[in-house]
Amino acid sequence: MTHPLFRKEIFVETAFARRFQKMLQDAWDNRSWHLLVADPGAGKTMSIRDLQKRAGGRSVLAVVAPKNNDDEQALGDQFLAALGLPIRGHWSTRKPKLMGHLHQYGTEFLIVDDAHDLSLEHLMLLKEVTDQGRLQYDHPLGLCLVAAGRGDTIPLKETFDLPDPTWLQFRRRFDKLAPFCRIASHTSEEVRDILSTLEQEYRQLFPQLNMRQWTSSIYGWLTNPVLDPTRSGRVTMDNLMKLVTTALERSYLAGDTEVRAERFKSAAALLVLRHDTLKLIDGAGPEALPQDQNQAEPARVNGKEPEQQAVSENAVPNATSTVETVGTAQEQETSPKTANCTFSGERVPIDLKRFTNSGISLVECPDCGRMRSLSPVKGVLRFKSHTRRKQQTPLTEKRWSATGKTDWDVVGGEIRISNHEG
């Protein structure tokens, strides 16, 4: 049976947490507005929770953006629940009192986690309530919209860039110097610091635990393109914790008093090679301790673990060698299957006004050429999930395309709309 320590949520004040909380604290102190973006699994939610605990009371109010409910009431009820107020009566009578409650409880700073799920109605409510606070109570509120995103994508920016006066006013309320910020995940040196902290947390189970000696290898495994698709060279806290806890838990269940390098190597293979693998559970169900697929562990050599010696000698200074080794193995494993195109679910950067005015909803995938009919969802165009197009027959339909170009235009037939038209 596993140890309770492996099921415990551990908050580590990582370099990411310090960067992220510093932005939140500045927004709180200055009552400024920001959109903060970080990688999925970077540690945003736990950092928000820690800030709330230290703030105490209701001065900092954090909620999660409603899912599958675009009505403003869904977000309004989240704020009322966070204040500890009963949700009774009609929304039409509760809504005008919301800012009054925030003023009464001394709320100074609002945080909306998973802000990429906010609808136009949710954003309108935020503007209306904060406007009411300034006008009726002389009570300005700081606001941070915390969203998950990779690369240079700025969630919600398509909405904020709409020409309507409402969104021009909303945009104007953002901080003049840092309206949109990306909080970076961890470098190799920062991973080393986290491993040092985790060694103390798990010292009761492994008195001689020393994970820092494998920092280079761990960093290399966790910056594999499967786990770092934008090749940022940064490691998220979620992936690091999964790797560490998997290796330590397997060692504990095996009765080991030390953690060998082979455990980390095996955990990394599970994270990378099995990232999208459907595991079949049959018979008596999953085993408590999955058996390693590797051969039996050899004995110590010269008082040193042979696995540790191998990792030290072949430590990965960067992601390159690990990418080649693990990536090749993944290609061999997935090659017989029909894989989705890499552009599945990606945002299509076509101006919504041009898209609507063109009257053309058919969009060509820039990677494989498959066509899909798209429509905006929450002000964003995303290409639907699809398998790669195999038949390379000529495409003649009128469609939006970026194939062979640097921008999106309507092609096919006689129509062609330039992105540089007024």
Automatic annotation (TrEMBL):
Q: Which InterPro entries match?
A: AAA_22, P-loop_NTPase
Q: Tell me where on the tree of life, at the top rank, the source sits.
A: Bacteria
Cross-referenced Pfam families: AAA_22 (PF13401)
Q: What are the ORC1/DEAH AAA+ ATPase domain coordinates in residue numbering?
A: 34-140
Regions of compositional bias (Polar residues) in chain numbering: 309-335
The UniProt annotation puts the region (Disordered) at 284-335
| Protein's UniProt name | ORC1/DEAH AAA+ ATPase domain-containing protein
Lineage of origin: Bacteria, Bacillati, Chloroflexota, Ktedonobacteria, Ktedonobacterales
